[in-house]
Amino acid sequence: MRIAVLGLGEAGTIYATDLAARGAHVAAADPRAAAAPAGVALAPGTAEAVRGADLVLSLVGARAAAAALAEALPAMAPSAVFADLNTAGPEEKRRLAQRAAEAGVGFADVAVLAPVPRARIGTPLLVSGPAEAVLTAQFAALGIPATGAGPEPGAAAGLKLLRSVFMKGLAATILEAVTAASTVGAADWVTDQIAAELGPGGPALVQRLLEGTRRHAVRREEEMLQVRSYLDALGSAHPVTDATIEWLHAVSAGAPPSGIQNR
Known about the structure:
Blueprint: E1 2-6, H1 10-21, E2 25-29, E3 40-42, H2 46-50, E4 55-58, H3 62-72, E5 81-84, H4 90-102, E6 106-112, H5 116-119, E7 125-128, H6 132-141, E8 146-148, H7 155-182, H8 187-197, H9 202-215, H10 217-234, H11 239-252
Parallel strand pairs: 1-2, 1-4, 2-3, 4-5, 5-6, 7-8
Antiparallel strand pairs: 6-7
């Protein structure tokens, strides 16, 4: 299978590397990359990377997703699938799907359901959109765990955002508890209590949530702003989401992480 990976950030590099290791012919494009991972061809641009590809994976970030699609479509074969793995709201995914349909190219909205570095190419995915069935079959052939969420573009994106209410809200709750506990010298005790409630994997989970919140606060704040917009569109109240955004904004500004910096 010939695969193009657009974007060689953290996730894109992992997907390109692991796909090549599984025998795929991988070409990548990223204007900021000086070199590609071993076994991956670095193309001079998006059009060169996607030309002749059976599958295009877009991992460029939500802000660049529309531009990446626009550059890729003219060079893609009608039989190819464009898979957008960037986190965005359902409306944006539907807009991208419409542009792909107008160009006669199959489109899939792909939600990445966990941090990619943890399980690498084994990270679970949720797929929706017109090319859902084709893409889930392609992923299965590559050993990538993917579940279909129907032919409607944006369905996978919406489900991911609803999941984020809990996952990012849980991280913010832990962060608030540990930060407050640190003021009375009880950060370790509170962290252990929380971890115990989360089962055998609790300690590792708490550590991942605290460290991930600090490391990716800017990106997660952007995601939660998308969550809030989606909840508004659904007419659903979102006080927990609002509080999570407040915490992520503070962390990204370097304000409150005294409870997690030295853990």
